[in-house]
Each structure stands twice: as C-alpha cells, then as structure tokens.
Amino acid sequence: MSLREHLYTFFVGGDRFKHEFWQEFRMLVLFTLGFTIAFTWRQTIFDTMSFIVKFFTNIKDNVTLSITTSIATTLICIALILGMSKFMENK
C-alpha cells in the first residue's frame, strides 16, 4: 500500500475516522443545544437573582442592582463549581 493510499484510508476512508467524526459531531450538537438552553434561561436566572438581591439589600438604583446581582451570581456559581469539583474528585 502506498503512502497516499495509507493516508487516504487513515483520514478519509478508514473506520476510525468515521467513528471519530460522528463522535465529534454528536458532541458539537450536544454542546450547541446545551448552550441554547443556557442562553434561554439566562434572563430568568438573572431576574430571579435580582429579586433576591433587591429583597435582602433594598437597593433602588438599577445599575447598582445589576452589578450587585452579577457579583452575587458569580460568587454562587464559583461556590457551586468548587463544591462540584470537590465532590467529583478522584480519590
């Protein structure tokens, strides 16, 4: 088998390439759908956090409320990320 045929089989015609291609394609579709779901819920989560921050802090200014809400959301997400990474840690 020539080098050209070997490269063609490896990259285009081989079973490994087809399997890897479809695996990566499925991952792309799942990532796209997950991003779409996250983007859809973004405003709902922000509004809910804004209500909670407004309830506890009694802030009236919209800019200050938005900044405080973003900071609170970031801190909660960081805490969740750290907690999940500890929980899912290999021992």
Descriptive notes:
It is elongated, with a radius of gyration of 23 Å. It has 91 residues and is mainly α. 88% of the residues lie in helices and 0% in strands. It has three helices and no strands. It has one domain. Helix 1 packs parallel to helix 2 (15-57) and helix 2 packs across helix 3 (62-87).
Structural class determined from secondary elements: mainly alpha
What is the tally of helical segments?
3
Calculate Rg over CA atoms. Answer: 23 Å
Biggest β-sheet: count, sense, barrel? none
Secondary structure: elements and pairs:
Layout: H1 3-13, H2 15-57, H3 62-87
Helix pairs in contact: 1-2, 2-3
Which descriptors apply to this entry?
mainly alpha, 3 helices, 91 residues
Give a short overview.
This protein is mainly α and 91 residues long. The protein has helices at residues 3-13, 15-57, 62-87. It has one domain (3-87).
